[in-house]
Amino acid sequence: MDNRAEVREFLTTRRAKLTPREVGLPDVGQRRVPGLRRGEVATLAGVSIEYYAKLERGSLAGAGPAILDALARALRLSDAERAHLFHLAQAADGTSAMLRPRRRRKRWEPPVGLQWVLDAFTGGPAIVRNGRMDLLATNALGRAMHAALYDRAPDGVPNFARYTFLDDDSHRFYPDWPGAADTCVAILRTEAGRDPHDPVMHDLVGELSTRSTEFATRWWRHDVRYHGAGAKSYHHEAVGEFELTYESVDMLSEPGLTMTLYAAEPASPAADALALLASWAASPAAQPQR
């Protein structure tokens, strides 16, 4: 990915999302395009319009933390967007290479101790994924909940992004498919900013952009987000629809990986669905075909 283009498109899309009223400026004159003018962003950031125009053209190299913080405040960036801006600046300076997660073998296997930890969590699904949305490890309930992903990747690593955008089944699995699709792309965008030289990510984005207009449209929005906690609905073929809460944590022992734990509200229909899912997972019909 071209860093200058990434910077340019990220800043222009953030600028386009704001109105003068939102940032306390008068709305003067007719606007040819939505959002703030460059001069208005420059004023809010406390820099000259010439300097801001240079930044928005993609010349982010050399911009210090004070300038980046000023831009983040002017553009009302979220925590995830602010971090993304700093990652783009690090890539422009050439320092991101020192910060990116170490490269992994083509087929990563969870350490025995990590698998014990996952298996010990019996209250709900537990999964480990990377920033490219590869599903790398699960407990039994996680494997059962995502059986469709495994069925469609018998010889490879299941990938949430490919499943979401290239498999019609995902529209049933995610009752709120547009929301799930938005989240998926935002996570990929966040990872691409963190590690812009990852060739596997380049290939994945190229494949999805070519094969899915839904993905391509979302990719060019340049939205980023953290996927820390929340609630999400699922529809499993064996147990129907249910809603789970989740908590995600970055793994210090395995940089670049995220563990997500899911749980149902106690004594709720979702808890009953998880119990039924556990029974289904233990049945012969749910076992992988050899």
Secondary-structure map:
Layout lengths: L2 H14 L21 H8 L3 H8 L8 H10 L4 H15 L2 H4 L12 H9 L5 E5 L4 E4 L1 H6 L1 H5 L8 H7 L3 H4 L3 H18 L4 H13 L1 H7 L9 E8 L3 E11 L6 E7 L5 H13 L9
Antiparallel strand pairs: 1-2, 1-5, 3-4, 4-5
Helix pairs in contact: 1-5, 2-3, 2-4, 4-5, 10-12, 12-14, 13-14
Give the DSSP E fraction (strand runs of 2 or more residues). Answer: 5-15%
Mean pLDDT: 90
Shape call: elongated
**Measured on Cα atoms, how large is the radius of gyration?**
21 Å
Helices and strands: which structural class? Answer: alpha+beta
> How would you characterize the largest beta sheet?
5 strands, antiparallel
The stretches of 5 or more residues where confidence is low (pLDDT under 50) are none
Number of strands: 5
What is the spatial order of strands in the main beta sheet?
Answer: 2-1-5-4-3
Number of helices: 15
